[in-house]
């Protein structure tokens, strides 16, 4: 950012009473497994300390679709208080439920769109299942922060327009071998690229989300 622009931003902040750092940073993340392969469906959450403003989530309405007897996406990351719809695009009916402490609920046998979405107020991990199709598994990661995203098929994700400062980084994946310690990241008004390795175990067949062998609550 040019010096003149920084001065104008600082002046506007001072006259308006805003105290947080508004210089924008960006972060690109690559996550791999222990073999170096790109890891899809890994969650990365950035937690800001007090004094650093975190922008509100761009989207508060999300979808966890049932299609081809699967949950799509397999992992959905949302900020707390997010509203999630569960549309069923299959010809057969589904009975969606969760036993997780962060959110216990059920949507009984239905096709199409349920009458009402589900609100996820509490941060934590939510394992999803279908009472009709035991092979169906899905996960909703409810974050404290609005800075949360899931890696794509290349194991990559990107955050943009983040306020500068120090953040704690949390990593999670449904198949991770053990709890990952938080890492500290300092963002400046530059583009930053990071690479993380997250050891995983391949999943075993299960019948209920509550008994996932590698499922770990935060």
TrEMBL record:
<keyword id="KW-0732">Signal</keyword>
<feature type="signal peptide">
    <location>
        <begin position="1"/>
        <end position="24"/>
    </location>
</feature>
<protein>
    <submittedName>
        <fullName>Methylamine utilization protein</fullName>
    </submittedName>
</protein>
<dbReference type="InterPro" id="IPR008972">
    <property type="entry name" value="Cupredoxin"/>
</dbReference>
């Amino acid at each position: 950012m040019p010096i003149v622009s920084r001065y104008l931003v600082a002046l506007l902040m001072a006259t308006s009473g805003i105290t947080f750092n508004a210089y924008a940073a960006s972060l690109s993340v690559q996550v791999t497994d222990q073999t170096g392969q790109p890891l899809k469906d890994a969650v990365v959450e950035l937690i800001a300390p007090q004094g650093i403003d975190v922008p509100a989530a761009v989207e508060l309405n999300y979808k966890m679709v049932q299609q081809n007897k699967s949950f799509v996406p397999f992992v959905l990351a949302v900020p707390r208080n997010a509203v999630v719809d569960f549309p069923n695009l299959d010809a057969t009916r589904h009975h969606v439920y969760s036993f997780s402490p962060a959110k216990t609920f059920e949507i009984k046998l239905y096709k199409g769109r349920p009458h009402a979405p589900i609100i996820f107020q509490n941060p934590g991990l939510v394992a999803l299942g279908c009472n009709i199709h035991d092979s169906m598994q899905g996960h909703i990661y409810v974050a404290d922060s609005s800075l949360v995203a899931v890696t794509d098929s290349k194991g990559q994700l990107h955050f943009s327009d983040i306020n500068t400062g120090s953040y704690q980084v949390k990593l999670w994946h449904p198949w991770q071998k053990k709890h990952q310690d938080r890492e500290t990241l300092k963002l400046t008004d530059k583009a930053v690229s990071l690479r993380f390795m997250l050891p995983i175990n391949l999943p075993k067949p299960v019948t209920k989300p509550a008994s996932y062998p590698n499922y770990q609550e935060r």
